[in-house]
Amino acid sequence: MENLFCKNTGKTLTALCVMAVNLFTGCGYNENAHVYSKVDSVQDNYVETIQSQVKADAKTNSNTATEDYLKDEEDVITDDERSTENMLKLFINDEEIQVIWEENESVEALKNLAEDKPIIIDMSMYGDFEQVGSIGQSIPSNDKQMTTSAGDIVLYSGNQLVVFYGSNSWAYTKLGHIENTSAEEMKKRLGSGDVNVTISIIE
């Protein structure tokens, strides 16, 4: 009888334990799951924050890059306008000639003179290699010994403009060079008689 009671009691306790486990499980209580849920929530919020920051930084960088590009474009336009405003034109017998001008005090002085009115110079052939004529006044010079070539434009003695269709060695201040013109073309243009040279500013 005692053994039977113990057996029944054991079964009852076992059943109660099983019920308790099922009760907790059935209610969905899971401590680890609850903790993991909180961690996942924090991670999601962190990821959303990082993504938002990345988008904001990308937008800021894009705007900055656009502003820098526009500023560079404005600087280029400004430089081009400035160089065009002060660019010299040269005519030989009323024909415009393309010249690459030097950047020095002598060329700047020519620009200043030409701003008031075009510089008109009556040229004369000399030595079968150049045309030379007076500017009408002295301008700054920085003479250096050099050997010229056809197309070179130089300042001689501070007040003489010289355009070469040949070559000569002397101390000059270089003003520029006529481009895209061969020695034969220069001789044909300048070696057949006196010419007239006009220097003016591009408007």
UniProtKB/TrEMBL annotation:
Pfam families recorded: Cyclophil_like2 (PF18050)
SUPFAM superfamilies associated with the record: Cyclophilin-like
InterPro entries: Cyclophilin-like (IPR041183), Cyclophilin-like_dom_sf (IPR029000)
Origin superkingdom: Bacteria
Domain Cyclophilin-like: 91-200
Name recorded for this polypeptide: Cyclophilin-like domain-containing protein
Taxonomic source organism: Pseudobutyrivibrio xylanivorans
